[in-house]
Write a structure and sequence with these properties.
Largest sheet: 5 strands, parallel
Oligomer: single chain
CATH class of the largest domain: Alpha Beta
Radius of gyration: 24 Å
Distance between the termini: 18 Å
Strand content: 15-25%
Mean pLDDT: 96
Number of domains: 3
Structural class: alpha/beta
Bound molecules: flavin-adenine dinucleotide, iron/sulfur cluster
Helix content: 10-25%
CATH topology of the largest domain: FAD/NAD(P)-binding domain
Low-confidence stretches: none
Number of helices: 10
Amino acid sequence: MERHKPAALIIGAGIAGIQAALDIADAGYPVYLVEREPSVGGRMSQLDKTFPTLDCSSCILTPKMVDVGRHPNIELMTYCEAVSVEKEGDTFRVQVRKKPRYVDVDKCTGCGECAAACRMKGRVISDFDEGIAKRSAIYVPFPQAVPLKFTIDPNSCLMLTRGKCGKGPLCQEACTADAIDFEQQEKFVDLDVAAIIVATGYDLIDPRTKPEFAYGIYPEVMTGIEFERLSSASGPTMGDITIDGKKPKDVVFIKCVGSRDSHTGVPYCSRFCCMYTAKHAHLVRDKVPDANITVFYMDVRAFGKGYEEFYDRVKQEQVMYRRGEPSEIYRRNGRVVVLAEDTLLGQPIEVEADMVVLATAAVPRADAAETAALVGLEMSPDGFFQEAHPKLRPVDTEVDGVFMAGCCQGPKDIPDTVAQAKAAASSALGVLARREKQLEQMDREDGIEDKSND
Ligand SMILES: Cc1cc2nc3c(=O)[nH]c(=O)nc-3n(C[C@H](O)[C@H](O)[C@H](O)COP(=O)(O)OP(=O)(O)OC[C@H]3O[C@@H](n4cnc5c(N)ncnc54)[C@H](O)[C@@H]3O)c2cc1C
Ligand code: SF4
Ligand code: SF4
């Protein structure tokens, strides 16, 4: 019998999963990093700048993405999902489903010729760009994707939906590497691991649950994450904050859309919207200096290091913070109007706007209950995963050897996510080190020498 180094499985490769993977791999243990999307990165890869320091999100994230892609101890399993987890003694037997990309990743060079030639070019809504841009049926979600391997979207590719793409697939003709393979099937891979970190992140509430804000009816009304793509230098408008091709003159931000709201079933605070709204207001001031900017708020929760100072700075940039919850958005004389009660003045007000940005609530992943059942996690009443103890065991779960990190446990900003990821990695390392000792002991009993340092 040969001794193996015990491995960890991480489910979800947003900033939480990436950080935890790097910490465990750097300590010398193998990591399987499973991500359901074609690239690692999670929500952070969609962001423009990050509060409170205004670092460019991709400038700090991309090097870490590249590191997980290259690390000798990390096996990156993108476009994959864990489908079963069984505990046998101290080992978790995990089955991972590899979804077909219809592209041979060993042959694909990431040149993009296929996407340029695709018959569906410019016709498929880009989820990564939150619908602001369109892509081809064969795509990478964004240029810095890791791995930089193309994927055919089975829901929009003509070959896969209709069995025919004109006289022949243009992507296949364009691919000189012969990487496109419509015969690819899903595959299942079995893994044995000693520790699991769940880092599946969060979703955002559908703003249509607040119909009074007319999202989806007036194009001027958008969500915070759409604003991130609009403002991002690598986004569809190259960072130009425009609406219908024009710079907005009057911009309104509405916080707590769906959060702290008994009607939406989200009683909690989403924790990062106060700060990202301040960041958005700053970005508008920076890029549209003469804009009139109004922020409607219930409270301002600027609790983190440097946050209150950032909020103060934004207020001094002639951003009008008005206390009050808007009750309705309607159109009058061709313009969008936000109706609210200013609770400090005690009177109703109307603010005309060219752009309205909704800070929508962070909610548990739509399939959080399935993930919880898969791994055996408890869920807290808010639908996020329940930690074993909020103060004493904040990254442990009730299942020995299973930990969690990031927004799957509850909404949190990037600094808290990274701190939690490091804590989960350190707890998982404890399990891996103990398991390694056990395996060494078993090897000694079986008379097998440790040659790992030879
Ligand atoms: C508009 C907006 C602006 C923001 N701006 C800032 C900011 O400026 N500064 C800041 O500190 N924070 C900001 N945040 C918060 C930031 O997005 C989060 O702190 C961070 O993304 C949390 O990372 P995460 O890894 O926990 O989750 P995520 O980013 O959600 O990543 C989770 C990953 O897990 C994957 N996944 C999910 N389920 C599965 C599964 N079953 N199997 C495999 N993979 C799975 C997902 O595809 C995803 O890649 C902002 C948030 C929003 C909405
Ligand atoms: S043309 Fe072929 S090699 Fe180039 S990105 Fe497309 S699939 Fe990959
Ligand atoms: S088969 Fe046609 S639609 Fe599908 S990716 Fe290739 S060119 Fe695009």
